[in-house]
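Format notes (please read before filing issues)

Several people have asked whether sequences and structure tokens are stored in separate files. They are not. Every record keeps both together, in the order shown below: the sequence lines, then the token lines. Line labels are part of the format and must not be stripped during preprocessing.
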Amino acid sequence: MKFLTILLFSPLYFFGQTSFRGKVVNTKNKEIVPFATIGLMKENIGTNATEDGTFLLISKADKTNDTLIISCVGFLTQKLPVDRTKTNNLVFELTEQETILKEVVVKNKNSWTSITLNEFSKCGNYFITSSGYQTQLAQHFNVVDYNSILTGIKICRRSMSIVDPDRTIFRIRIYDIDTVTKSPSNDLCDQVIEVKTKSKVISLNVEKYKILIPNKEFFIAIEWLKIPYNENKGKMKVNGKEVEYITYSPSIGWTDNINVNMEAWMLDYNNIWRPMFKNNNKTSVSISATVKY
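Then the structure lines:
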């Protein structure tokens, strides 16, 4: 069986480069912040801190007018002008975000109705991955009623080997919808939902997070972690020359579901969400959601 993986990346060229090294900590207690995202907005490249909070970000440009962006779920996003004279032993401090999520008020109902959205039976033969130029992949959902509760998430990813399946670690984000741009907006869960798995199909019960969906539309996103644990190296020819590239797991499948009211979106280091599949007959990826209302 043939598989096609869509690589969301640009080939790696290193002419002149600058390396940024440091760590990310919590402003309040100076504890490390694992897997925070660090990017250069104009150059649209980035990385993630490792589990011990340290990071290495390699810039391929000589620009000095770029902006560093540092973000992590549960913290306020920080933007800093680039200072190329200070590239080593950097310490970025992130401030915890005050909880602004609405308290989940359970409806006074004798019974609940549960429904699974964007249900899929197969991963398909098409997969989407990233070399780090895209940071998140989000699936759009429509629910029946306001103030529904998200109870389950299912994701299908590429994992070829049965004997030694591909390993991966990633995070899941839940977003409200921006009523103007129709893109993902505010986090609906301020807790870290982290998945470390070798499974092809991941099924999660998320009732303990008490995720309230205030509107009739929301997003579930996969947040890639650009760390060595997730690296997959390969080679390809560009203008007749063989160049190396790196992609990061997981590779998320496309579904065969066609619904013009559902679409997938991508987030890059410019911190801008963009819709996908505009010129394709596939509109959704292999992420399903179970909600009760």
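For reference, the curators noted about this record: Confidence is low (pLDDT under 50) at residues 9-15. The chain is about 0% helix and 45% strand.
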